[in-house]
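pasting for ref
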Amino acid sequence: MNYLSPLEMLYKWEQEKPNEIYLSQPINGVWHNWTWKEVGEEVRKMTAYLQSLDLPKQTKIGILSKNCAHWIMSDLAIMMSGHTSVPLYPNLSADTLNKILIHSETKVLFVGKLDNFSAMQPGIPADIPCITYPHYSEDYPKWDDLTKDISPLTDNVMREEMELATIIYTSGTTGDPKGVMHKFYNFSFATTNAVKALPFSNESFFSYLPLCHIAERLLVMMGSLYTGGKVSFAESLDTFAANLSEASPSVFLGVPRIWTKFQQGILGKLPQKKLNVLLSIPIVSTLIKKKIQKGLGLSKAKNIFTGAAPTPAATIRWFEKLGIKIQEAYAMTENTCYSHVSFKSKIKIGSVGQALPLCDVKLSDQNEILIKHDALMDGYYKDETETNKTIIDGWLHTGDEGAIDENGFLTITGRVKDIFKTSKGKYVAPSPIEMKLSANKNLEQICVVGDGIPQPIVLVVLSERGKAKTKEDLVASLTKTMEVVNPKLDKHEKLHNIVVVAEDWTIENKLLTPTMKIKRNAIEKIYKRNYAAWYEGERITLL
């Protein structure tokens, strides 16, 4: 089957709906809009400028910015000018940024909306010219100045479907990030088939998760291109709730942490007992649900997704009582974010859904999830060894452990590589245990460990709610959680202690990935020397 490319979709909407708003972005509290025609003109001007640099074909050009209208314009201009994009997380350390820029052989860098550029700037090699965005300008030549006297490209440039479109560096839960290579065909295949299957049509999207990550890039950027939809952006963490409420998208993706924040915000205004009473009264229940949905900005949302990490089933059921049906999804950078999704009419809570069309899935002898379709990565950039470990006989080895029921619903049961061995010689998979513990809303982050000790112990970071508790209340809450969870575990999995660590796990201290996943290896390096002492200590330890 022939699929239209992202550029062909841009050309289509330039012609068919030139005056409809495509990108909408709040800047200092004021919404700025760009129509399809205006976006096309900006992209064509920047394309003409990039072509004037006489760079070799498929030169690597980086994008270092938080989400904004010019991020998407940059990506399209890189495509249109015949080059390859290297999207970068906007919160990288200078050292990691430097490694990626050198490894990818990036020759030009777009620098945009950033919170702490001064800390990152030392990581940019001196010989890489930078272009900065309007509204968020650093001390580099500005987009508007560079394109002011340039005539926009008039031709509709076409790229070969097998050409390298992008190199996406994974956030790396272990070791250095790896550069995942994707050709244009992969975007075309994945988006066209996903849009048709869900189905999407002229949707409105809300962009706040990093566009450099495959999920946001495919769902929001590609989803909007392939449906002729609208993208609204969040301005900042402080304005997130207001921006989402104003945008009221028809499609929304929330990572588990967002759903926890939403839940805590609602319960802060309506305690659970009062909420239960209101939801039990027929007419009042309808009004309360509508008010909560509108307050969150989800009153118009037809598809509400969660992904990136497991969302507790209890959380999904809680939102379902409010009329908010959360659809779990599962995919990864290496398969162009095209794998499994919970269709709105077929949600099985606890499962990440069913395989999308033309996606084959099976389990290995170790129950590792293996994926095969036409949009798997071309490999890791300049890393044939890791590529050959990951794609074997055409099957992508995900590293995730799973189970598939008779209806094709996939459940993630853990990580093949995360399994550890206790001193009793028993293997423990931490992820399912962590999911059970996450029912305690006093906990923000959870890491079950136990390498070299008789039974597993739990390292936790408290949520804001947990930090507000007295010591006595917190110990009682955690003790109760142990009493509830342990009977559900096999003997060798039963938890011996809970340790509340003093330091939060953050992106800045390199204990979380940019997509908010815990870095087990990094956490173990810091705390492992204390496991034996904690094991012999109090059942609940507050550091």
